[in-house]
Design a protein that fits this description.
The chain has 163 residues and is mainly β. The chain contains 2 helices and 8 strands, in the order βββαββββαβ. 12% of the residues lie in helices and 32% in strands. The strands form 2 sheets. It has a 5-stranded antiparallel sheet with strand order 6-4-3-7-8.
Length: 163
Amino acid sequence: MTLTTTGWMDGAVIPNKFTQAVPMPVSPALTWANAPAGTQSFVLHFHDPDVSIQNGTGDQVHWLVWNIPATTTSFAEGMPAGPTLPDGSKQVSASGQTYRGPGAPATGPYHHYTFEIYALDIKLDTIEPGANEQETRTKVIAAMQGHVRGKAVMFGLFRRPPA
């Protein structure tokens, strides 16, 4: 599988319009391809693993979208907020039911913001949001166990511009 964006090159610095460096960050356009035969749904997991390394806690959920239909192969830039996206998939982040842009502080190193798309052989249409984004992610990942048939990863770097 592959996962790409037109917003930046894989591994490059994420432009500010997709980040908390601006008041209203927008989600990047994402495209995935070459899903394995038998794919029934996708899960998109966008997170900051560097937070866990720095503070020893779970990493930041910047966007978790599950039960994405198998016929969906891309998200447009600026996906809408709300519990359910136009294709019927569900979303959550540390900011609520919306995309949360990268927000690493200007005083530290660049963080590695990781986008992962998983192809599943089941639908996750019975998974409802938990009490918060961490609980929801735990439920989604548990439901995915034994059902991942493909995965693609890309990342970008970010730290806030100096004030």
